[in-house]
Amino acid sequence: MHKNRLRLVGALAAVLVAGGMAAPAQAHDKQPTLADLAQRHGRYFGSATDNPELVDEPYKAVLGSEFDQITPGNGMKWYATEPQQGVFDWTAGDEIVNLARAHHQKVRGHTLVWHSQLPDWLTSKEWTAKDLRAVLKKHIQTEVRHYRGKVFAWDVVNEAFNEDGTYRETIFYKTLGPGYIADALRWAHQADPKVKLYLNDYNIEAIGAKSDAYYKLAKELKAQGVPLNGIGLQTHLALQYGYPTTLEDNLRRFSKLGLDTALTEVDIRMILPATEEKLAEQATWYADLTDACLAVRRCVGITIWDYTDKYSWIPAFFEGEGAALPYDEQLQPKPAYFAIRDALK
Ligand code: XIL
């Protein structure tokens, strides 16, 4: 009841801001940031960012002040870090790590093993299991070693399952079998015994076939002593598909396995144009997923997949959709921003 009222106040404030009747939130320097509020709960509140955006000074100002955790949107992916076999390039990832360190922000490493955004040299060849294993091990260990002490967590394997809970038939699965996941975790752990190791995926926010597959795998890996610390729920939601109401229960069942959880790539897209109603519903969803994370002790933090619609990946990947983030294209906070604040208060 109390929470709902606060949210209404937040939504009203947002309308006033939109109508030019009040200054935007970041104009009040003394207001606690999302990071400040999250820290009071022992959580972080982070944003992804990407190298091309880092020339935008107003963008960087909010990125550096409002958040206490950063994920590189692309800079640590295989195509970027090992563009030729055995030739490593840390330029993009390092730029983001250095920026984050300058703002005392922690960094999530994303991602070591994924079927997408692979370099051509890797995808254009037929590999024997022996050779691909060696390539995979070298990639993981070289990258994890390079960022040792600089990232607190790694998305070791990204998007390993299909919607029905079967293994995705990636080059790694097809060549190495399902054991590539345990191997990847073990190799990463050897290279940095302190970093938290995650499996990360989308459409695993609700309880269902795909999240069940993670639950089952995580349980097996734990039983076998494989170094797995957490499950990352990407949380790319869309208004037209409904809110995942079992999110909190789902987070809790992973906690009970002794795992951390994190909402790692949150955005809530909608079919454009954005209306006041849709933005209000989006705000409620952002508050609800924040509540869900706060309600489960081992949900360690929330990362939005960039913070502003100006740099969201959504319009380029989902035709006719967008407006997915808590700040608009002018870097002004939307109702979602105020709803997150209220939920964190
Ligand atoms: C996206 C980036 O944001 C885009 O810039 C890029 O073109 C494609 O990848 N799931 C993930 C992220 O794990 O790495 C993806 O990031 C979004 C979906």
Written overview of the protein:
- This protein is α/β, with parallel strands linked by helices and 345 residues long.
- It starts with a helix and ends with a helix.
- The chain has helices at 2-18, 34-39, 57-66, 78-81, 91-102, 120-123, 129-146, 171-176, 180-191, 209-223, 247-256, 276-295, 314-317, 335-344, and strands at 44-49, 69-72, 106-113, 153-158, 196-201, 230-233, 236-238, 260-271, 299-304, 321-322.
- The chain folds into two domains: 1-30; 32-344, Alpha-Beta Barrel (TIM Barrel).
- The longest helix has 20 residues, at 276-295.
- It is built from 14 helices and ten strands.
- An eight-stranded parallel beta barrel has the order 1-2-3-4-5-6-8-9, surrounded by five helices.
- Helix content is 43%, strand content 17%.
- Helix 1 (2-18) packs antiparallel against helix 14 (335-344).
- The chain binds (3S,4R)-3-hydroxy-2-oxopiperidin-4-yl beta-D-xylopyranoside.
- (3S,4R)-3-hydroxy-2-oxopiperidin-4-yl beta-D-xylopyranoside (XIL) is lined by residues 50, 73-74, 158, 234, 265, 313.
- Its EC number is 3.2.1.8.
- Residues 1-27 form the signal peptide.
- This is Beta-xylanase.
- Belongs to the glycosyl hydrolase 10 (cellulase F) family.
